[in-house]
Amino acid sequence: MGESSNLTVNQFLYKNIPFAIEQDLVPISLIAKVPLVLLVSGKGPHHSVADLVQASKRKPLTFASSGNGTLGHLTGELWKKTGELDLLHIPYRGAAPAMADLSGGHVDLFFASITAALSSLQSGLVRALAVTTAERAPALPDIPTMAEAGYKDIEAAVIFGVVAPAGTPQALVTRLNHEINTALQQTSLRRSLLDLGAIPESLGGSVETFAGVLREERLKWGEVVQASGATVD
């Protein structure tokens, strides 16, 4: 199973990946999409996306990520460009230290996956301002979308899916896709994925649907990497 970094982003960040993703792998099935959520400190003065935008006009804001080239980093860069905002990227080694510095007020904002944010949100250490999907996320139904805040181009979700080596017989690809989709219909598994922030409509689907998702994501984030000059350590 792969996720956004190794399926759609890393090929634009690393010069020497030992395999060609589109040539050496074939899609089997999407498992789930988990949106990102724009977070600020629970103790801070910002209660809306508009608050952050106004603050960035007074002085540059810092945005945390769980590392260079991560989806949260690239989403921040995308918002910086499309929103013409003055944002400075501060990379961390993982979501936990980024969340700790955000809650302590040492950085201004953080695009984190809903999964990584839930415990800090529930404890009040951080505050959610918007989710990065076209529709509100079931895990955070009271939180508006970035589109509602006026930024319809800010859509991002961590993608989880199953791939196989190129040359896998088509009959096996079809069977695996069927078995995965059958498993994803189990109430307990669906509930677990939804509790982790997954979008219900993203659970499973055809081989062709997953292939289309991967194509769109590679095109989008490849352009963001090129435009932002994002690199990895």
From TrEMBL:
Q: Which Pfam families match?
A: TctC
**Coiled-coil annotation: which residues?**
none
Q: Which InterPro entries match?
A: BUG, Bug_dom1
The name of this protein is Putative exported protein
Please name the source species.
plant metagenome
Lineage per the UniProt record = unclassified sequences, metagenomes, organismal metagenomes
